[in-house]
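This entry is set out below.
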Amino acid sequence: MTAYTAPTRDMQFVIDELAGLAEVAALPAFAEQDIGPELVEAVLEEAAKLAAEVLAPLNHSGDVQGARLVPGQGVIPAEGFAEAYRSFVAGGWNGVSSPVEYGGQGLPELFNTAAQEMWNSANMAFALCPLLNAGAIEAISQAGSAAQQALYLPKMIGGEWTGTMNLTESQAGSDLSAVRSRAVPEGDHYRIFGQKIFITWGEHNMTANTIHLVLARIPDAPEGVKGISLFIVPKFLVNPDGSLGARNDVHAVSLEHKLGIHASPTCVMAFGDEDGAVGELVGQENQGLAYMFIMMNAARFKVGLQGLAIGERAYQAAREFAKDRVQGRLIGVRSGDRVSIIHHPDVRRMLLTMKAQNEAMRILAYVVAAHIDIARDHPDPAVRQRHQARVDLLIPVVKGWCTEIGIEVASLGVQAHGGMGFIEETGACQHLRDSRITTIYEGTTGIQAADLAGRKLNMDKGAAMQALIAEMETTVGELEQAAGDDLAVIRAALVDGVKALSGATEWILSCRDPSAVMAVSVDYLMLAGYVCGGWQMGRAALAAQRKLATGADLVFHEGKRITARYYAEHILPKAGALLRSVQSGGVSILAMTEEQF
């Protein structure tokens, strides 16, 4: 079982050279903090210790033990998780980017993104608890009343309480218009009745209280999504002074038996089995869908990070196995010592495919995190709007593309181990099993693609995408001015990739058949992901070239350039094939009758 070591050198390279640290540091929100490379290094170093020494050792044992629902006791987490959570909270990691006035550290989302990668690489099942809490914090921060913020946020940010999202019902998976849970007015609160499924960390004993954010309908609400409201429903009622009152009428009635993330309890939650669960309305009645998307977008970005995180963990395991596993001789050599399998070309291909895609995902995700910071805090409204448009455009790409690639990388990790990859003891199986949910929860890849191709492009008639393509073309120009064969190869591939993205975007915007657009929307999303990754790898190669010119670490920065060339030669060309698929439309997809399937 391979240990996890956070790739802090890679992370710092991305943050310092590619994600726009200087622009983030200049924001008024961080004026009183010394946001610079030294702070980045300190945060990464401390987060890496917790990830490697506390969270990662529980990953396998938690997978084996799982969480348990015990009558009369509720959900009991896997052994060691409660202690790990206390260490996590004691380090202040629950509120890295949360507001200082509520007990957070007030650091950039860019820093929090790097930490989130580490938590999910080390122990994805554990990391899901603070991930969902962060979404609930975001929703209350933006949509809750001042009283709700003062009552709930300090303890949720401080880690004394955790938060959840309660959206899905058995008859209403991704179709929230079918939600049936009821909210009956009663004085200054509501009584909630209904059942929710797939509630991550919906019940546990690691904290004194759990704050559920629940979608439900008030009486006489409009049909469909226009009639959904959002409610705060605590596990224990909260008194005005913040102390805990009686147990609320909300309970976990069962846990799902899952393919992976066994240590993360996925609960069926019952609200109102007796008198009704007491809930507070968040914001205005019938506006729950808008508030839900605050939570959902925060969670979608962090789930995209899980694709990167699980890919990094799988890569590290495969790399170390390939260095240790001795089998066969070098190609063309018939005698002499056998070599470790990292010397065999196909193993090198697999490892480079894993490494290159991980690096592309990391840069893309961290760059989006910097856009989030600027969109929140820049003093110029026009600048905030421009960066928010970039965030809105790229979140479905980060969520959809990174999770699809994360599964691919985890699968390659099994393959690189050979037969040992199929054996649970190596850990490679767990990475693949854990990764499989990421393309499903918080909106499937198809839902992300529909959002990108069907909604985001049409909202501004492609303006945000054209702005993105223009930045890619600027990078192409910078590569043209740079010297060296590697950069020339990267430039040529990026030129083709940008043409593919531009052509596919033009086709999507010009198509008047929404069914045809939806039929090829996943191909469009994946094309956008591959090209965004190629663009970021081109930027990484340029940054590495600049560092090499100053006499910086030859091995590290030359490795960045070689990895970027590999991406350009062997991964980015997929964009051309996807362009042809997009332009073929949905003729064959839509032609089959139901009986012909």
The radius of gyration is 24 Å. DSSP finds 19 helices and twelve strands in the chain.
